[in-house]
C-alpha cells in the first residue's frame, strides 16, 4: 500500500516484538515510503473458573457437531496489548506513524514514542472519545463509524446501540477537535471519499476495498465469502473476542449474536472459538458492510480507481484559499463545491 502513495498499515496485535522487527525489515527492503504500525491497547482480563465453564457450555454443542473434544483445544496466538517490550522495538524501528485501537497505552509509552518523532493516531467512536484522545497527545483522530469492519474501537463507550454511522460522527468529531480527522467505515470507492472530505475529513482509511487484490494475503475460502457477500452479509457480534467487531455472518454467528459471558479479548474466548469458525485455521474474517462495492483489480489499479474522482479532477481550480472555499460552498453545482474541498485537502 505504501508504495502506491497511501499510508500502508501493518496489524501488529497478533505479532511478537521479534515478528514486528522482522516484518518491518522486510517492508523496508522493498520500499522507502512511510508506513504505520497498528496495535491494540486493551486490558487483558483473566476470567474466573465459573466464566470459563459457562463459555465452554455455550460452545459444547458446536464442538460436538464438528466432532471435536473441547478440552483438546491447543494454544493459539492472542491479541496482546501494547507493552514495554513492544515499545522498545518500535523505538528501535522508528516508523513514521503508530496507531492504536481501544484508546491509548500507558502515558509513559506514548511519550516514549513521541520523543522518537512518531506520529500517534487512535480510533474514536464518539466525540467524547475523540476529545479524550486529543487531550492525551493524539496527532490525528480516526473517526470510526458504525459501518467499519473489524473490532469497534470503543474504549469509553460501552453501548453498541448508541454508536453512530460515519457520516453522522465525522462532522461532529471534526467540529470538536483541532487535529486532523481520518474517516473510517464503509468507504470503498471515490464516492465515499468525496463524501468524507466534504464532511471535513483530512483523509480516509480503507481496508475491505483492497481484499480482492491478488496482493492481499487472503485464502480462497475468504475470497469466495467476499464475492458472495451481499448488503446484509456482515454482522456485529462480540462472540469471537468479547468486543463487537463486524465480520461475515456465517455459522455460529448466525445462531448466537452475543457472548454468554463478559470475556473481553480473553485467552479462553479467543482460543475456544477457533475450531468453530468455518474458515481456514479458525480465523474469523473481519470485513465491512461495504464489501459489495469491492472490485477485482490488482493493487495499483485499485488505488487508481479509488483515488480517481472523474470529472472532479478536471474542474476549474488549480488552487484556492479557504475564503474562496467558503464562497464555493454557496455554489449551486455540487461538483464545483467538492472540487474546492478536494483542492484544500491536497
If you had to describe this structure to a student in words, what would you say it looks like?
There is one protein chain. Strand 3, helix 4 and strand 4 form a beta-alpha-beta unit. The chain is 37% helix and 12% strand. It has 346 residues and is α/β, with parallel strands linked by helices. The chain folds into two domains: 2-49 and 79-260 and 285-308, Aldolase class I (TIM Barrel); 310-346, no CATH class. Strands 1-2-3-4-5-7-8 form a seven-stranded parallel sheet. The protein has a three-stranded antiparallel sheet with strand order 6-10-9, with no helix packed on it.
Name its key features.
single chain; 346 residues; alpha/beta; TIM Barrel; 2 domains; seven-stranded parallel sheet; three-stranded antiparallel sheet; 10 strands; 12% strand; globular; disordered C terminus
What do the pLDDT scores average to? Answer: 75
Query: How are strands sequenced across the largest beta sheet?
Result: 1-2-3-4-5-7-8
* Approximate helicity band: 25-40%
Estimated share of beta-strand residues:
5-15%
If classified by CATH, what would the architecture of the largest domain be? Alpha-Beta Barrel
Taking pLDDT < 50 over at least 5 consecutive residues as the criterion, the unreliable ranges are 257-267, 275-288, 309-322, 324-346
Helix and strand string, N-terminal first? EHEHHEHEHEEHEHEHEEHHHHH
| Oligomer state of the chains in this structure | single chain
Work out the helix count: 13
Largest sheet: 7 strands, parallel
CATH topology of the largest domain: TIM Barrel
> Which CATH class of the largest domain is shown?
Alpha Beta
Number of strands: 10
Q: Supply the number of structural domains.
A: 2
Amino acid at each position: 500500500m505504501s508504495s502506491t502513495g497511501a499510508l500502508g498499515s501493518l496489524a501488529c496485535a497478533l505479532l511478537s516484538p521479534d515478528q514486528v522487527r522482522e516484518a518491518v525489515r522486510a517492508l523496508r527492503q522493498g520500499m522507502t515510503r512511510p508506513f504505520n504500525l497498528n496495535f491494540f491497547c486493551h486490558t487483558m482480563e483473566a476470567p474466573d473458573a465459573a466464566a470459563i465453564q459457562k463459555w465452554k457450555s455455550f460452545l459444547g454443542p458446536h464442538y460436538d457437531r464438528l466432532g471435536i473434544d473441547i478440552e483438546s483445544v491447543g494454544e493459539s496466538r492472542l491479541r496482546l496489548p501494547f507493552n514495554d517490550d513492544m515499545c522498545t522495538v518500535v523505538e528501535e524501528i522508528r516508523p513514521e506513524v503508530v496507531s492504536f485501537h481501544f484508546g491509548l497505552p500507558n502515558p509513559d509509552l506514548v511519550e516514549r514514542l513521541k520523543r522518537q518523532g512518531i506520529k500517534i493516531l487512535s480510533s474514536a467512536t464518539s466525540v467524547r472519545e475523540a476529545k479524550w484522545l486529543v487531550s492525551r497527545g493524539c496527532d490525528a483522530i480516526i473517526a470510526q463509524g458504525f459501518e467499519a469492519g473489524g473490532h469497534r474501537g470503543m474504549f469509553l463507550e460501552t453501548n453498541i446501540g448508541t454508536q453512530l454511522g460515519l457520516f453522522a460522527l465525522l462532522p461532529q468529531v471534526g467540529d470538536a477537535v483541532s487535529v486532523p480527522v481520518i474517516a473510517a467505515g464503509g468507504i470503498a470507492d471515490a464516492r465515499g471519499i468525496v463524501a468524507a472530505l466534504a464532511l471535513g475529513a483530512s483523509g480516509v482509511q480503507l481496508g475491505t476495498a483492497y481484499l480482492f487484490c491478488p496482493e492481499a494475503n487472503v485464502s480462497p475460502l475468504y475470497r469466495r465469502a467476499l464475492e458472495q457477500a451481499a448488503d446484509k452479509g456482515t454482522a456485529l457480534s462480540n462472540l469471537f473476542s468479547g468486543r463487537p467487531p463486524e465480520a461475515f455472518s456465517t455459522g455460529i454467528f448466525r445462531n448466537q449474536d452475543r457472548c454468554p459471558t463478559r470475556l473481553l479479548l480473553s485467552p479462553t474466548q479467543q482460543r475456544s472459538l477457533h475450531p468453530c469458525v468455518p474458515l481456514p485455521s479458525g480465523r474469523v474474517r473481519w470485513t465491512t458492510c461495504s464489501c459489495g462495492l469491492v472490485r477485482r483489480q490488482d493493487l495499483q489499479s485499485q488505488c487508481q480507481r479509488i483515488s480517481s474522482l472523474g470529472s472532479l479532477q478536471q474542474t476549474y481550480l488549480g488552487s484556492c484559499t479557504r475564503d474562496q472555499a467558503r464562497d464555493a460552498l454557496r455554489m449551486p453545482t455540487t461538483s464545483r463545491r467538492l472540487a474546492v474541498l478536494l483542492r484544500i485537502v491536497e
